[in-house]
Amino acid sequence: MTHTNTNWILAFFGTLLALELVTGSENNEYMKREHSLVRPFQGVGVILPHWDFLGNTMVTSNYIRLTPDLQSKSGALWNYSPIMGRNWEVHVGFKVHGKGNELFGDGFAIWYTKDRMQTGPVFGSKDHFSGLAIILDTYSNHNGPHNHQHPYLSAMVNNGTWSYDHDRDGTHTQLAGCEVRFRNVDYDTFISIRYENDVLSVSTDLENRNEWKNCFVVNNVELPTGYYFGMSATTGDLSDNHDIHSFKFFDIDTNISHDEILQRSNIIPNAKTFEAPREHKDDPKPGMSNAKIFFILLFVVLVTAGVAIFAISYFKDRNARKRFY
């Protein structure tokens, strides 16, 4: 064998080894299977390893459906184990689809919170939560003007004292957000949530390009260790199928001591650049319709006529009695 052929073979196997290290580190070393979900899903129907589910959630080998495309449904999926790493990244593959072309809802949320398996009004999970919510809202409940279109992706950090204002689509308490288009597409859609050194970065792959597009980056976000990941969805008068295709958790900690991880378990979730919740102002009451005005005027006329008839009858009767004296 010539020296040239030997170098070529060594280079070839070196390339294969490099690729193996890259893919292997992502899939095996850094991806924690106790916090991840990868198709085909095992334990179909009753038991899902490392995860609990509740409500209308349905598990199949190819997808986990949080809600069907039916009214007034909700479902959730929660990881068993708390996250003990400070820095991490999550990739979620999902698909939201349904029969509605113009009206659909409501959306789903990805949670990193203190409490798990808690149902409630915020996309199927509890309000006044402690932790982080990444919300993919498909329907605008806002009665006033928005500065963005739906579907909309946003983040909220809560210390357990604030309420998610569903009527205002959470715009009073969000950290940041961006418009997204992910409904009724023929391919898988993905969201990446990265939390590293108190920086929260959210990106999406919604156009089947196999590349991440930045949605927002927020600095000075403090999240404790020991919280749980979950996903939940809900429908109301409007509906959609909310399907989860994958959930991959990557541990990206470097040189973080065990003591530091334990110390961070006492952190109260907060974001220093977070705007304080603005006052909830009710929308102005709508003016009366023409029909309502007509009936009110008709009522006033009838009452006035009745009073007039009574007064005339009363005075006639009184005058008639006077003539007998």
Automatic annotation (TrEMBL):
Subcellular localization(s) per the UniProt record: Endomembrane system; Golgi apparatus membrane
Keyword Transmembrane: yes
Signal peptide: 1-24
Domain L-type lectin-like: 29-252
Record-linked SUPFAM superfamilies: Concanavalin A-like lectins/glucanases
Protein name: L-type lectin-like domain-containing protein
Keywords, alphabetical: Disulfide bond, Glycoprotein, Golgi apparatus, Lectin, Membrane, Metal-binding, Signal, Transmembrane, Transmembrane helix
Pfam families given in the database record: Lectin_leg-like
Membrane topology, record value: Single-pass type I membrane protein; Single-pass membrane protein
Entry's transmembrane regions: 293-315
Primary site of residence: membrane
Entry GO terms, CC: COPII-coated ER to Golgi transport vesicle; endoplasmic reticulum membrane; endoplasmic reticulum-Golgi intermediate compartment; Golgi membrane
Molecular function as annotated in GO: D-mannose binding; metal ion binding
GO BP term, pick one: endoplasmic reticulum to Golgi vesicle-mediated transport
